[in-house]
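Quick start: read one record
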Amino acid sequence: MPDEAPSPRKILDDYPRLGLEDSFTFRCDKAMDCFGCCCRDVSIVLTPYDVLRMKRALGISSSEFLEKYTISPFTKEQKIPVVLLKMDPQTRRCLFVTDEGCSIYPHRPWACRMYPLGVADPKNPNPEDRRFHFLMKEELCHGHDRGRTWTVREWIEDQGVEQYDMMGQGFKELMLHSFWDEEKDLTPAEIDMYYMACYDLDRFRRFVFETKFLEMFDVDEARVEAIRTNDVELLEFGMLWLRFALFKEKTLRIKPRVAEAWRRRAAQEQSKAGAAGAHEQKVANSHG
């Protein structure tokens, strides 16, 4: 997981493609002289489910976790926030790595579980560019061609990747939406909403329950009770909310009385705008 990661084009053009039954030989444990080197000076992008698992493992709120353990660099080229795991400013090592290994190993991020495998998942694949796995070989890692031989499927099962893939499906669909192909920038409020619903789940829960949200949207009682205490349910609900708010999809239902009030208000505003325009035209004609 080096900072100088290969480009998507290089992966598609140059990397051997591995299917689920293809195999590789790899070892990683404390006896290796490179143990922990792959956790230093790296850019680890966190998914929403990564943040959920890690903040829960630490017993802290999502807001505290994001402030203490992540950075979210933002450039003009980006349309949405990206959350990266913070490195120690002195050692450039992951804050969760000790001499004994990862201190939150059962809850480590998806990217750490996958290594040394990568996965290429083109957005609009042609027959040659469909999803495939590939092997990342860096000089810092001495575990290749040593130890046990794994199939790709065995590695994914052993590292618990399947659950992370399943829990990340909604986020993946959000990220691959055609909306992002449009030449349109999110407003600061929309960017904050995206960040909150994806990563800052405890703040999103307060948004749902401490504002007029549930007075406006028709959410069934079972789901309301589920998102009140269950972070996974809340994350899935957040994906539905973003699809509604950003993409204008009908993933949530506005309560009929609220929808009617909105329609009346829009009609009144349109009527006022029409009257104002007619008045301006009348004044202009009187001075013509």
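The chain has 13 helices and eight strands.
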